[in-house]
Design brief:
heterodimer; A: 240 residues; Alpha-Beta Plaits; four-stranded mixed sheet; 29% helix; B: 236 residues; Fumarate Reductase Cytochrome B subunit; two-stranded antiparallel sheet; 11 helices; binds protoporphyrin IX containing FE
């Protein structure tokens, strides 16, 4: 199984935003909604006066969105890509609010979560992700990191890699930046929404009380088989 | 023999029981995140394999809607004849007596009467009405839980069309799980006491025939027999 990784060389990005439009077009996104972005930060050292940083879902190794999803509609595939099964998604939005990168949104019409999946449908047809194809400067390099002949594996072997991650509880992003990138301090660890966090508590309580109830009943049932209460010395039930 | 349940109530009980068990099973399968549901990941996997993800959700929502529709019709048609009397009956609580009944019955079931006497505990159960304290408790949980499930369930089913309602949807999900959980914890006890416990056979048969032997009722529900609107009313 391939392990898909995207490496972004931000020094090549000139903020043309072709990646954003290509993604919208390829994936038929609704007007005003985006799966990827280019961050713009003032930078005196750059010829344009800005540092540009393209990004999208970081396809984390420990994705908080997967842990936050009550139905596991959001899952991490064996190929490393975090995806949404729209049939399973009930649109509760927990994944949207918990993502440290703000990489998700709830589709206003379908009412389900939407995010970058490295263009899974067209990738299955052998195409590169739309943002990679559209990039005039080849700032985005995409491929199978486990295949030593793949361009992404080759470049990862020689270049310094920077991860943009929250200062605490890093979800271990697998989308990486080549060399330096700015800024690196923007992702934020966000707590699971309160109702979902309380579902953990309720699930635990029901697990233990349910087991007590079920095994208690089974125990009493077995006890009645071996030692029927009707055989006790004094039993008013016998007259009933 | 005296009449204990009407045919309509019997139909509603078994219809409700079937829907409840299927909805509980499929609902726990939908909640596939093992940290957010009580049974573990094997259960969702089992159901997913059989129905596929979308099929499972469709089944759950369709069944829930059918269950609700039948209940609405039943409540409208039988409000004065059955629904209100049932609610009055289950909420007729006598806290001290009810607590004594539940504690002693629990000990009778687990320790047994001889052991209780040896420990100096009184195993005599306080006399009960149409429903005993345990049945009232379970019935209240079932009614309250079902109401919570209806409200949160309707919201969840319609929420795909809502925008900016994520927080509401999340709370509905929490209420849905909590209400189902409360009833689910009581269900094994209910089913054991109703269908498997020795000596309860006549009560189980009454959920099919509607009739219960007078001697059985005198032993289990003495207060019911002496009530002014006791079995005489139900006999009609
Ligand atoms: C298949 C399993 C079930 C069996 C064998 C069963 C059996 C019975 C019986 C025999 C009664 C009548 C008791 C009497 O006349 O004193 C009863 C009552 C009742 N059942 Fe069930 N039942 C089952 C499942 C359920 C489920 C799933 C629910 C709801 C969640 C439910 C809710 C009730 C309620 C509310 C009553 C009336 C109050 C009470 O007896 O606690 N039952 N059941």
């Amino acid at each position: 199984m391939a392990r898909y990784v995207m490496a972004v060389d931000t020094s090549r990005c000139m903020n043309c935003r072709a990646c954003i439009l290509a993604c919208q077009q390829r994936n038929g996104l609704r007007y005003g909604y985006y799966r990827n972005w280019v961050r713009r930060t003032p930078d005196a050292g750059s010829p344009s006066g800005f540092a540009f940083q393209p990004g999208s879902c970081m396809q984390c190794e420990n994705p908080p969105c997967v842990a936050a999803c009550p139905t596991l509609a959001t899952y991490k595939g064996k190929d490393g890509v975090v995806r949404v099964d729209k049939e399973r998604c009930i649109g509760c939005g927990s994944c949207v609010s918990v993502c440290p990168y703000g990489a998700r949104y709830r589709d206003p019409v379908l009412g389900v979560a939407d995010k970058c999946d490295y263009c899974a449908p067209s990738r299955a047809l052998g195409l590169e992700p739309a943002c990679v194809q559209a990039c005039a400067t080849r700032a985005r390099i995409f491929g199978d990191a486990d295949d030593p002949n793949d361009p992404v594996a080759k470049i990862l072997a020689v270049r310094k890699v920077t991860r943009v991650e929250p200062p605490e509880h890093s979800p271990k992003p697998t989308q990486v930046y080549l060399g330096e990138t700015k800024p690196t301090d923007w992702p934020r660890t966000t707590a699971l929404a309160a109702p979902l966090a309380m579902m953990h508590v309720v699930a635990g309580a029901v697990r233990w009380l349910g087991a007590l109830s079920l095994f208690g009943v089974v125990g009493v049932f077995l006890k009645e088989l071996v030692l029927p209460s009707g055989s006790g010395p004094r039993d008013p039930d016998k007259t009933a | 023999m005296i009449r204990r349940h009407t045919p309509s109530a019997i139909f509603m009980h078994w219809f409700n029981a079937l829907c409840w068990l299927l909805l509980l099973a499929s609902g726990l399968a939908l909640l596939a995140n093992p940290d957010m549901q009580p049974v573990g990941a094997w259960w969702p996997r089992l159901w997913n394999g059989a129905l596929g993800a979308g099929g499972l959700l469709d089944l759950h929502v369709t069944l829930g809607a059918a269950w609700l529709a039948v209940y609405v019709v039943y409540c409208l048609l039988y409000l004065r004849r059955e629904v209100l009397p049932f609610l009055r009956e289950i909420f007729r609580l006598t806290p001290g007596q009810d607590l004594a009944w539940c504690l002693r019955k629990g000990l009778v079931l687990t320790l047994g009467e001889p052991a209780m006497r040896r420990l100096g505990l009184n195993p005599e159960l306080p006399p009960q009405g149409f429903y005993n304290a345990g049945q009232k408790l379970f019935a209240i949980a079932a009614v309250a839980g079902s109401l919570g499930l209806v409200l949160s369930g309707v919201l969840l089913a319609l929420s795909r069309g809502l925008t900016d309602a994520e927080n509401l949807v999340q709370w509905a999900l929490f209420v849905h799980l909590a209400c189902a959980g409360i009833v689910a914890v009581g269900l094994p006890v209910h089913i054991y006491m109703a269908a498997l416990a020795p000596g309860e056979g006549p009560a189980l048969r009454s959920m099919f025939t509607g009739q219960v032997p007078e001697a059985f009722a005198r032993h289990h529900n003495p207060l019911w027999l002496t009530e002014p609107d006791g079995p005489g009313v139900m006999r009609k």
